[in-house]
Amino acid sequence: LFSKIESFHVLDILNMGVFPDSSFDCIVCIGGVINYLLDKEKDGVAEMLRVLKPGGLIIVGAMSFIGASLYYLDGIRYEKDQFGIEATKWIFDTGVQDEEHYPVPSKHYVHMMRSSQMDDLFNQFPVKIIERSSAGLFTQSGDAALENARNDKDFWELIVEKEIQFTKLQGTLDCGMNIIYVVQKI
Known about the structure:
This protein is an alpha+beta fold. The protein is built from 7 helices and 6 strands.
């Protein structure tokens, strides 16, 4: 597969000027890139759409605020003692961990999103949402439970099968560690 790569670029998602308009059939933006744009999320989507061909697909993965809150609830409780209840209300209301409102020492500033925020973001553009899904749903069971499940081949195969099935259900959309959207440029 590596031999099929024509070129490799390290770029800022907000400025992919090395590529002309309508350069790609598909863009994959996973790993939470969209979450770190904070107030520039719309600009990031606009730039991806600029380099995407009409009819092309964008696959976007965003960290889920609700999923992260479920998994890291104890940490949020600890941070409440550090920053106060108003900061905790802020992060629950917005999903934004920033220097002004939620000044974590690591300076890990991020906008963890809800599916409704992803819908609002994409509804500003000429796109059709093809699919929405959660990812990492069984992560909520904890590392020890997942490791135990991995040690049982039959059980693990069932868990993987059900993860794929369950993450497509509307009720689980925000419950995994990530939210995945597939959108088509109209």
